[in-house]
Design brief:
The chain has 2 helices and 24 strands. By secondary structure, it is mainly β. It comes from Enteractinococcus fodinae.
Length: 289
């Protein structure tokens, strides 16, 4: 059994983990903070985002991009630490922004909720927006069942995305300009839900794929938001490895560490905002994989 350890605690709800230059960068939703955590568990404040941070990534020149969820913007942190607007996605999306992946050229792919999840509104599909390095933006893909964690495979030629309420991972071909095409099921965990009631959807699926990250062989590690586990999935849907998080649910993951084989896992008792907002039960877990 994989040995899971707690690296740091006292958070509200962690999301969007990314390993870079010896530290794990992560967003803590309800404290509105982007944090950097080293392998000893030392935590430092990187930025404060009043409208709730989520997905993270970097431009080629090293400036940090941060999803600002509630006002549906992507922010850019300048060299002096200040935040400025990189892209306004409010006209292209219908509810909070979500996770993000940024490629080597500085193109950002940003997912969104599509509906008021935390109030139990009817389930609606959402889109992925492509933000070019200059901040211009367009819808790259639509009709996704809560597009969530993303990563790039095949040397950047394939984008894989969790459809959290679709019981699957989907993939797209990526062309030289970043455009997406040829959508297909990359991995299916069972039939696609048909209900618009979120409780019925959660009861009908075998997994809720949330944050994900690629492994060196183009398998992906995926946090299962209802399964207290992170699973390593091959194309087609075979689960080739998994790490249990015990009694805690896990919502995002990233590979990193000095050896490149540390799996960082963002865990908490639940994802419900009214339960996480005023508590500090979120933890960062690690396992060697």
């Amino acid at each position: 059994m994989t040995n899971v350890q707690e690296l740091a605690d006292g958070f509200s709800y962690l999301e969007g983990p990314r390993w870079r230059n010896g530290k794990l960068y992560v967003s803590d939703f309800y404290t509105h903070q982007v944090l950097a955590i080293d392998e000893s568990g030392k935590v430092e404040l990187v930025a404060t985002v009043p409208e709730q941070p989520s997905g993270l990534g970097w431009l080629p020149d090293g400036r940090l991009l941060i999803v600002s969820m509630r006002d549906r913007r992507v922010l850019r942190q300048e060299e002096d630490g200040s935040l400025t607007e990189h892209a306004d996605l409010s006209e292209l999306t219908t509810w909070h922004l979500n996770d993000m992946i940024v490629d080597e050229a500085g193109r950002a792919y940003v997912g969104s909720f599509g509906f008021d999840l935390m109030s139990g509104a009817p389930v609606q599909t959402a889109n992925i927006v492509l933000v070019q390095p200059d901040g211009s933006a367009e819808v790259a893909a639509d009709d996704l069942a809560f597009p969530n964690g993303m990563d790039l495979l095949d040397n950047g030629g394939t984008l894989v995305v969790s459809e959290s309420f679709g019981n699957r991972l989907s993939s797209f071909n990526v062309d030289s300009s970043g455009e997406l095409s040829a959508r297909q099921d990359w991995a299916s965990f069972g039939p696609e839900p048909t209900s618009e009631d979120i409780a019925e959807v959660l009861e009908s699926v075998s997994a809720v794929p949330d944050g994900l990250c690629r492994d060196e062989d183009d398998t992906v590690w995926v946090a299962d938001a209802i399964g207290q586990r992170v699973v390593r999935v091959a194309k087609g849907g075979e689960i080739v490895d998994q790490v249990s998080t015990g009694d805690l649910n896990v919502f995002a993951c990233a590979l990193g560490g000095s050896d490149g084989r540390t799996l960082f896992m963002c865990a908490a008792p639940t994802f419900a905002e009214h339960e996480r907002r005023d508590t500090r039960e979120g933890v960062l877990l690690t396992a060697k994989v």
